[in-house]
From TrEMBL:
GO terms for molecular function: 2 iron, 2 sulfur cluster binding; metal ion binding. GO terms for biological process: iron-sulfur cluster assembly. Its cofactor is Fe cation. The gene is iscA. Transmembrane segments: none annotated. Gene3D superfamilies: HesB-like domain. Keywords: Iron, Metal-binding. This is Iron-binding protein IscA. One of its GO terms (cellular component) is cytosol. Belongs to the HesB/IscA family. Residues 1-103 form the Core domain.
Amino acid sequence: MAITLTETAATRVRTFLENRGKGVGLRLGVKTTGCSGMAYVLEFVDELNDEDEVFEDHGVKVIIDKKSLVYLDGTQLDYVKEGLNEGFEFNNPNSKGECGCGESFNV
């Protein structure tokens, strides 16, 4: 089981953490919502929980709870810029489809 980051995503996360002045890493998760059923959750973590799984890639700790890991195992997080748009992109091999607006996915 693993979650990975591209170098571009890792650089962006490190920049966010440095600007915050605190934090041990980035939490990835899922929540039930949207037209397709599940949405990705990203948040900075200041303290680890006992049930957290921690992966490290390119010097960044990626924290995920065990329930979300089932849906995100093998996912690579990237950071992309296209024209005026920029943001994190999930390359999730478990996703069977996404809604038209791109805000949610199903497995």
